[in-house]
Design a protein that fits this description.
Elements lengths: L2 H6 L13 E3 L6 H5 L3 E6 L10 H14 L8 E4 L3 H13 L3 E6 L4 H9 L3 E5 L3 H13 L4 E2 L6 H18 L6 E5 L4 H13 L4 E7 L27 E5 L1 H15 L5 H16 L4 E6 L28
Parallel strand pairs: 2-10, 3-4, 3-6, 4-5, 7-8, 7-10, 8-9
Antiparallel strand pairs: 1-2
Helix pairs in contact: 3-4, 3-7, 4-5, 7-8, 9-10
Length: 318
C-alpha cells in the first residue's frame, strides 16, 4: 500500500461516533413472535468509541457549544452523570482539549469510575444520589468553577439523536420501522429519535421505559417532578412502560446467552419490552436501543446468576 492510499483511509475519532449496527434477534424472541411475522431489531450503541449511546450527545453538546462560542479549548467543563454520559464526555473532552470535572453518585459501578479517570477526568462522588449531583454541578458553575453542559436540559442532547440515530434507524429499516423502544434517562435519545421518525411517518409508535416504583436500574430514571429533564416532551411518547428490575436483569442475561449481545440492565429492559410489543403486533418492525456494553457492569455480579429455574411469568403483558 502506498503512503498516498494509506492517508486517504485515515479518519478521526469524531468520525467514529454513530453509524452503529442494527441487528435482528435470532433466538431471544419465542417462536410465537417469529410466527406472527414480527421482527425485533437491536441498535448496538456499545459500538461507539467510548462504548455507549451517550457518545452521540456528548460530542454534539461540546461541538455545538464550540460553534456558538460558549466554550473554547482549555475551559473547564462540569457535568453530573450516572456513568455513560460522563465516560463519553471525558472521551470527547480529551479529544478536543478540555479539562472536565464529573460528579456522580457514589453507588455507580467501579468500572464507570475507572473509565472516566482513564480519560483524564476529575471525579467527585456524591453520596446523596443523582439529584444532589445535579445540584452540586450547578452550584460549581455559579461559583465560576466551570461550564455545565447540562445534559438534562440541553437541546443539543436530543438534537444529536434527531440528526444521527433517527436517520440511521429509518435508513437501516428502509422506512419499515413501526415501533421504537428506548429506556428513558435524560430522555434525549427517545425525544430526538421520535421527532425524526414521526416526521417521516407519524404512525411509528414510540415506547419509553422507566423503572417501576421498586426498581433501581442504572442509566434510566423515574424522575421526581422537580428534576424532570427539560428536554422531555411527553407529546413525542406514545406509551410508557414500567420495568420490573428482576425481569430487566433476566433479559440482560438472555441477550448475552442467547444472542451474544453483552449489554447492561437497561438494555435487558428494552429487550423484554421489545418481545412484549412483538407478541401484540403481528408483522411489526421493532427497534430498540442497546445502550452500552456489559463489561462496565461486571463488578455487580449480575451475570453470574443462574436463570435456568426462573419463572418469567411476571414478564408477560396482560
Amino acid at each position: 500500500m502506498s503512503n498516498a492510499n494509506f492517508i486517504t483511509q485515515i479518519t478521526t475519532l469524531a468520525d467514529c461516533v454513530g453509524q452503529t449496527p442494527l441487528v435482528q434477534l435470532q433466538r431471544l424472541p419465542e417462536q410465537e413472535h417469529i410466527a406472527n411475522g414480527a421482527t425485533v431489531l437491536a441498535k448496538l450503541e456499545g459500538n461507539n468509541p467510548a462504548g455507549s449511546v451517550k457518545d452521540r450527545p456528548a460530542f454534539n453538546m461540546i461541538y455545538q457549544a464550540e460553534q456558538r462560542g460558549d466554550i473554547k479549548p482549555g475551559d473547564m467543563l462540569i457535568e453530573a452523570t450516572s456513568g455513560n454520559t460522563g465516560i463519553a464526555l471525558a472521551m470527547v473532552a480529551a479529544m478536543r482539549g478540555y479539562p472536565i470535572t464529573l460528579l456522580m453518585p457514589t453507588n455507580s459501578t467501579q468500572e464507570r469510575k475507572d473509565a472516566m479517570i482513564a480519560y483524564g477526568a476529575t471525579l467527585i462522588e456524591v453520596d446523596e444520589g443523582m439529584e444532589a449531583a445535579r445540584d452540586l454541578a450547578l452550584q460549581m458553575q455559579a461559583d465560576s468553577k466551570g461550564v455545565v453542559l447540562d445534559q438534562f436540559n440541553n437541546p443539543d442532547n436530543s438534537q444529536a439523536h434527531y440528526l444521527t440515530t433517527g436517520p440511521e434507524l429509518w435508513a437501516q429499516t428502509e422506512g419499515k420501522i413501526t415501533h421504537f423502544i428506548s429506556s428513558m434517562g435524560t430522555t434525549g435519545t427517545i425525544t430526538g429519535v421520535s421527532r425524526y421518525l414521526k416526521e417521516q411517518n407519524p404512525d411509528v409508535k414510540i415506547i419509553g421505559l422507566q423503572p417501576d416504583e421498586e426498581a433501581s436500574i442504572a442509566g434510566i430514571r423515574r424522575w421526581p417532578a422537580a428534576y424532570m429533564p427539560g428536554i422531555f416532551d411527553a407529546d413525542l411518547i406514545d406509551e410508557v412502560m414500567d420495568i420490573d428490575q428482576r425481569i430487566a436483569e433476566v433479559y440482560m442475561r438472555k441477550l448475552a446467552k442467547t444472542e451474544g449481545i453483552f449489554a447492561g440492565v437497561s438494555s435487558g429492559a428494552a429487550a423484554w419490552a421489545a418481545t412484549q410489543v412483538a407478541k401484540a403486533n403481528p408483522n411489526a418492525v421493532i427497534a430498540f436501543i442497546v445502550c452500552d456494553r456489559g463489561d462496565r457492569y461486571l463488578s455487580t455480579g449480575l451475570y453470574n446468576v443462574d436463570d435456568s429455574n426462573t419463572d418469567n411469568s411476571s414478564a408477560e403483558v396482560n
